[in-house]
Amino acid sequence: MERNEMIEILIEKTKVTREEAVEALEKTDWDLLEAIIYLERNAKVENTETTKIIEVKAEGQYQGDNNSNKESYGGLGTILGRIARGIAKFIRKANTNFFEIRKDNERPIRIPLIIAALLLIFLSVPTVILLIVGLFCGYKYSLSGPNINCDKVNDVFKKVSETADNVKRDFKESYEE
Prior knowledge:
It comes from Clostridium isatidis. By secondary structure, the protein is mainly alpha-helical. It is built from seven helices and three strands.
């Protein structure tokens, strides 16, 4: 739409002078809707029931700040900040959830998940061997904590410990015969 057409439409809709219409369109970067809103806010248009504006402030919006319409793409700092917040959130959750090791009715040993993950990453072979030996010695493993739904994982741990008990029992029976 050409600028002259926009000026004519604005004059027709708002009943303002040509100079006021041109001024409003120039201040709003030739956006017709924004120009109408601009004229209404400056009381140059008679507010009727159909043209009444209800202004709602967005959260964190400051008075006089019109940068909300501009898109921000963020730089390297923004991306690194998001990555750092994600890592911090992961570490926070991993520190509040635990890997539990228990035997019969004894009090469980609770290791934060972050430490268990670090042990598996850096000392994977000894850790896996100790976990398997622990299964055959009667230890049970589980996950607990407020931030995770660990029912399925605990069911798998329970089945693995039952299988280890069955293997241990079969080995004892075959050894005794």
